[in-house]
Design brief:
elongated; 20 helices; 69% helix; mainly alpha
């Protein structure tokens, strides 16, 4: 029995295969095929700029502050620049070092990070590039050309495929919330319209906050119209399921998980900025939903009264579990993930949904979400290392089916109908659920990393000491230079 368990664990962790960030925390590799001249200011600055560009792609894809720092240092150390100080905030990367032996000369690189871009195919390409640099197979000039091509090349598949993925995600979330095929179809069309509209507005330069306002409005008004039409034809449709699916589609791309991870790993400034950004964008969604509800009342297209509590009907649990896997896979497609990442994300979410519905009846939605997210982070972390996929992709996609879209809508609806206590209660449940998801996936990922236990990366002390400078060291250097100067031998002169 023990041998069977060891074989299963070996297959999951695959000894010798670790993620890129885990490898970056190991001892730095020797100098690559084309090491740089550490006394040349231009070469040192070029490597630091290359590392900053790689960090830009990592941060804009949602990678945490600490993991980005580690991988930036791994790039610089792979080219022989073992001592660098990396400072990262929400949208800036600063890299600093000293070069020279006798006289130290500081070298700084400052890089502004672009906006959040959920392009998981680009993240996978950068992950492979870092591995190649660490292996010593990619000189700096080659890595620069690869980055140039990567930044200019389109995604692995076009926007229509990604748009279809977002639409499928909306339909799957509706099934996840207990809706039938009619509700799923309307949610499919609604999600399609939301992403198409917000993408168009984003290309026109509209801030993300207002994009979310428009998205929340689109999620609400079609649901109310569909509900009114369904009543005329004798059909039963719950508009809350349609609206909640639209909210989940809008929430999926936010950085709550990354903000919590930054806070846990010692980056409070970035964590606070990301958390505030997430709250602000969520506020835009809530504002859009509120506008949709108000306009529906003005048009006399009344939404049904919201029940005081969600009906815990889990008779279709199997269908909901399948819908959870489809939701995560569709989200990965919408974010241009590679097909291997799509499959792994779907399987991980399938397992996470099973855990959620196993514990939700006994522990409630918040605790069940925490347990399911921990399982997602752990299993996704192992599978990502097994198939050399960035764990971030699996983690974010895996918790997507459990985002509290329905609780947010219930809270917004109750607040607008003078049910303040019920409204704030549901909003509090939504925040607690989201925090549980973020904390759980971070904990699961941490456990997955501990199974490999790579040696921690510590800059060589000699290199670190060589790059330090003080006035005392300057005085000692002057004394050594004076002792080495040739002196006139007065004794010999007297003999003459």
């Amino acid at each position: 029995m023990q041998n069977v368990f060891q074989r299963m664990l070996s297959f999951a962790t695959l000894r010798g295969r670790i993620s890129t960030v885990d490898a970056a925390k190991a001892a730095p590799p020797p100098s690559p095929l084309a090491p740089i001249d550490l006394t040349d200011h231009s070469q040192v600055a070029g490597v630091m700029n290359l590392a900053a560009r790689i960090g830009d792609i990592l941060l804009s894809s949602g990678t945490s502050n600490s993991d980005t720092k580690v991988q930036v240092r791994a790039v610089t150390s792979a080219y022989g620049l073992y001592y660098t100080h990396v400072d990262i905030t929400l949208n800036t990367i600063t890299i600093f070092t000293n070069i020279g032996v006798e006289r130290k000369m500081p070298v700084n690189v400052f890089h502004v990070v672009g906006k959040l871009d959920t392009n998981f195919s680009k993240l996978s390409e950068v992950d492979r590039l870092i591995r190649s640099i660490q292996a010593g197979a990619t000189p700096p000039e080659v890595a620069e050309k690869i980055l140039d091509e990567l930044e200019q090349s389109p995604a692995s598949y076009g926007f229509p495929v990604a748009l279809l993925g977002w639409a499928m995600m909306g339909g799957a979330v509706a099934v996840l919330l207990g809706g039938g095929w009619q509700v799923s179809l309307i949610a499919f069309i609604t999600a399609f319209t939301i992403i198409a509209t917000t993408s168009f507005l984003g290309k026109k330069g509209l801030p993300t906050f207002f994009q979310n306002v428009v998205g929340g409005f689109i999620a609400t008004l079609p649901a109310s119209i569909a509900y009114s039409l369904a009543l005329q034809f004798g059909l039963e449709i719950k508009p809350s399921q349609i609206i909640a699916s639209g909210i989940v589609v809008l929430l999926a791309g936010l950085t709550l998980v990354q903000s919590l991870q930054d806070g846990i790993t010692g980056a409070p400034v970035t964590a606070s900025a990301r958390f505030f950004e997430t709250l602000l964008f969520t506020g835009g969604i809530v504002a859009g939903v509120g506008l949709g509800i108000q306009l529906s009342e003005i048009l006399h297209v009344m939404l049904p009264a919201m029940e005081s509590a969600a009906a815990p009907n889990y008779s279709s649990t199997f269908a909901r579990i399948i819908a959870g896997g489809v939701t995560a896979a569709a989200f990965a497609v919408g974010c241009y993930a590679e097909w291997s990442s799509v499959i792994i994300a779907g399987l991980t979410a399938l397992m996470g949904s099973a855990f959620y519905y196993l514990f939700v009846v006994y522990l409630g939605p918040v605790s069940a979400a925490a347990i399911a997210a921990t399982a997602v982070g752990f299993t996704g972390g192992l599978l990502a290392r097994r198939f050399l996929i960035p764990p971030l992709i699996v983690a974010i996609a895996g918790i997507t089916p459990m985002l509290p879209g329905l609780a947010i809508y219930r809270g917004m609806y109750a607040t607008l109908n003078d049910q303040t206590l019920m409204g704030f209660t549901n909003i509090a449940v939504a925040l607690a659920t989201a925090s549980s998801l973020a904390a759980g996936v971070v904990l699961g990922e941490w456990i997955a990393r501990r199974l490999r236990r790579p040696p921690r990366f510590n800059p060589y002390r000699a290199f670190t000491k060589a790059n330090e400078f003080s006035f005392q060291e300057e005085a000692e250097q002057n004394q050594r230079r004076q002792r080495k100067r040739p002196k006139t031998n007065q004794r010999f002169g007297n003999k003459r």
